[in-house]
Design brief:
27% strand; six-stranded mixed β-sheet; four-stranded antiparallel β-sheet; single chain; alpha+beta
Length: 350
């Protein structure tokens, strides 16, 4: 059972900030080729590890990149240590803990003679943490066939996530008239934005998802004006909108356009809301393997690039310690994670 610990330690030692994953992928490719247990396919710095052939095709996915160390990071973020049953280091939870357990689960299954009636793949992809820029899973979807089902490895305390909110970023713009602040009596864009904010408070969408709730609108940035003594002719408000599968982005945009006296433009609509039928085999396999109930998540992941594929998000580690100054993962979670992934895979192909 030390294999997963040793692999995670090695993976943490590579400072794989987004765009800097190549040295880790080079090492993993050499290491995995040396086992003689799996088939490898590399597309740029996205590494796919295969066991079996044909269909159905179950794809496991996690990412090799990490966020930068915290300014006050505890210890050397890329020199992992084990203390009190926990492994500390950047990426230990998000998401090299998931990656190491997925890889170990495949190696152990292959070593024990697992021969699926189909194919299982672990895709370790790049640039998940860089807000979709150069995202490895988005890139792969344009270069490979569609899998039949997928498992996204993110820290969920090994509970299966079967619904995930999307993220829609909008810019709301009000217009006024520019002029000297001492004389100006015309329309002020900032006052107009005040009316927009007041109206925004009263906008709600009644439709709910039983796992992730309803649409959530949060104003995050407001900008306006060019000089301290000049009335502004324009003000901008940015909205972070967490969406659900039952309410389309277009419906949200149309509703806001109708009820707000302002122009609205889309900043980002790439992160769509997702959910998977609870009766689909990938879900029932995850529920049985984990022994936990399915839940919904308010945060995004690479699942958005698999939104048209039946998918479950599940992995070892606790999400609340991701990106923190003392990021760590419990060793027990790693060992349980290997077993959960193995049970999930065998259930899916049974």
């Amino acid at each position: 059972m030390h294999q997963v610990e040793d692999l995670l330690k090695k993976m943490i030692q590579f400072p794989t900030l987004s765009g800097q994953e190549k040295p880790l992928v080079d090492w993993l490719e050499q290491y995995l080729n040396g086992t003689g247990l799996v088939q490898l396919e590399r597309i740029e710095n996205n590494l796919m590890i295969h066991v079996g052939n044909g269909r159905p095709w179950l794809m496991l996915n996690s990412h090799s990149d990490v966020v930068p160390p915290s300014p006050d990071h505890v210890g050397d973020p890329f020199s992992p240590i084990v203390k009190d049953g926990k492994m500390y280091g950047r990426g230990s939870t998000d998401a090299k803990g998931c990656g190491s357990t997925m890889i170990t689960s495949l190696l152990e299954l292959a070593n024990n003679g697992f021969n699926p009636d189909g194919r299982v793949t672990m895709a370790l992809t790049v640039c998940e943490e860089s807000a979709g820029v150069n995202n490895g899973m988005a890139f792969l979807r344009n270069h490979i066939e569609d899998p039949d089902a997928a498992i996204v490895g993110e820290p969920t305390s090994l509970a299966p996530c079967i619904a995930q909110k999307g993220m829609l970023i909008l810019k709301v713009t009000t217009r006024g008239e520019s002029g000297h602040a001492a004389r100006m009596k015309g329309k002020n864009a900032i006052y107009e934005m005040g009316k927009v904010l007041s109206d925004l408070k009263n906008i709600a969408f009644d439709t709910k998802n039983n796992l992730i709730g309803g649409v959530k609108i949060t104003p995050t940035i407001i900008e306006g004006g060019t000089a301290k003594n000049m009335a502004p002719e324009k003000a901008d408000l940015y909205l972070d909108i967490r969406t659900i599968p039952e309410v389309s982005n277009q419906h949200i945009i149309d509703t806001l356009s109708e009820k707000l006296n302002a122009s609205i433009s889309v900043v980002s609509d790439r992160y769509v809301a997702t959910s998977t039928d609870p009766k689909h085999k990938v879900v029932t396999s995850a529920l049985k393997a984990s022994g936990q109930d399915g839940f919904g998540s308010p945060t995004s992941s690479d699942w958005v690039f698999l939104h048209d594929i039946p998918t479950v998000k599940i992995g070892p580690g606790h999400s609340q310690v991701s990106h923190t100054r003392d990021e760590h993962i419990e060793i027990e979670q790693l060992h349980k994670g290997v077993k959960v992934y193995q049970d999930l895979i065998t259930q899916y192909f049974s």
